[in-house]
């Protein structure tokens, strides 16, 4: 039995994707799950959110430290073996662990791109390379006895993200209410569908019966709108204009379904959450190296800040519950 992998992806950057993965990882741990947060973005922003610079330098510079995601796939890149046994960085004792990201992961892009057509020629190494992320993530799930895996992906449509999405059972799309997010959706939807179809075609050509491969479901379960503060240079009318267009564009481009008239975003079943920006809390959370909803008065969360902390907790809890329901991840009633 495999552990569900949920990817958070948008090929448009700056939509709060990494922050979303970071906070949901903490929230699922808070709700009683054993969680692996996997940083599959070569920019390693999720890793930087979890770890301070001293620890990062220690891991990246010392080869005896826990293996980063790139070190795990390096034997494949060098042609000297298969994926290495993953090692996780503990964040909260045994409940929440991180598969450490690595800027060197960008070096895996060429190999992933080159091996994609090789699957059509029934080459075993091609299948091992393309499925490396999935096999690595499932190995971390076994070692951590994980209930759920959350993956952070970079904002592009390259070969690394193709392999990362093929590894995913589900995908959540973070959005901002602006033109760029909508244009990003128009690229993302058809591309993900094409990758899913192409992988299904390749699955039939696996030459190694003992090589277990990902199903490549990549099932879209909805979108999350990060409601950034309305700036003076972006009138309220324009802001609401983009908000109103999101449901239809998502249905047409991601789900490949008719827009079905005008659906209010708050009534759209595909909208998992409308999250506030919590701009005033971010500096406090970054300084304390903890999620927004765990800030205390000792961290500077007093007065209105403390009320915002409580609001953030409820927002992320409800989002975590909704995602769990759609991915059939069981939450202990004790924590709900």
TrEMBL record:
Gene3D superfamilies: P-loop containing nucleotide triphosphate hydrolases. CDD domains: ParAB_family (cd02042). Residues 5-204 form the AAA domain. It comes from the Bacteria. Transmembrane segments: none annotated. InterPro entries: AAA_dom (IPR025669), DNA_Partitioning_ATPase (IPR050678), P-loop_NTPase (IPR027417). This is ParA family protein. It comes from Planktothricoides sp. SpSt-374. The lineage of its organism: Bacteria, Bacillati, Cyanobacteriota, Cyanophyceae, Oscillatoriophycideae.
């Amino acid at each position: 039995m495999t552990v569900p992998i949920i990817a958070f992806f948008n090929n448009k950057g700056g939509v709060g994707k990494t922050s979303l993965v970071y906070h949901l990882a903490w929230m699922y741990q808070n709700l009683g799950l054993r969680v692996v947060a996997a940083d599959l973005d070569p920019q390693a922003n999720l890793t930087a959110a979890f770890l301070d610079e001293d620890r990062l330098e220690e891991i990246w510079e010392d080869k005896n430290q826990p293996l980063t995601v790139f070190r795990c796939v390096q034997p494949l890149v060098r042609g000297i073996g298969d994926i290495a046994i993953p090692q996780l960085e503990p964040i909260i004792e045994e409940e929440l662990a991180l598969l450490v990201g690595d800027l060197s992961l960008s070096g895996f892009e060429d190999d992933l791109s080159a091996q994609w057509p090789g699957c059509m020629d029934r080459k075993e190494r091609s299948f091992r390379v393309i499925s490396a992320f999935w096999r690595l993530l499932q190995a971390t799930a076994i070692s951590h006895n994980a209930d759920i895996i959350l993956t952070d992906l970079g904002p592009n449509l390259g070969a690394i993200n193709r392999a990362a999405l093929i590894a995913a059972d589900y995908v959540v799309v973070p959005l901002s209410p602006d033109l760029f997010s909508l244009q990003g959706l128009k690229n993302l939807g058809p591309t993900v569908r094409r990758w899913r179809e192409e992988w299904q075609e390749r699955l039939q050509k696996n030459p190694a019966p003992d090589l277990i491969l990902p199903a490549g479901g990549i099932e879209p379960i909805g979108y999350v709108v990060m409601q950034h503060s309305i700036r003076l240079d972006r009138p309220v009318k324009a802001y609401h204009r983009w908000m109103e267009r999101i449901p239809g564009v998502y249905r047409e481009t991601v789900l490949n379904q008719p827009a079905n008239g005008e659906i209010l975003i708050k009534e759209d079943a595909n909208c998992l959450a409308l999250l506030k920006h919590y701009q005033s809390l971010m500096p406090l959370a970054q300084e304390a190296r903890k999620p927004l909803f765990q800030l205390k008065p000792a961290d500077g969360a007093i007065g209105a800040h403390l009320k915002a902390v409580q609001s953030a907790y409820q927002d992320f809890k409800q989002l975590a519950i909704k995602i769990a329901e759609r991915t059939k991840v069981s939450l202990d009633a004790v924590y709900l």
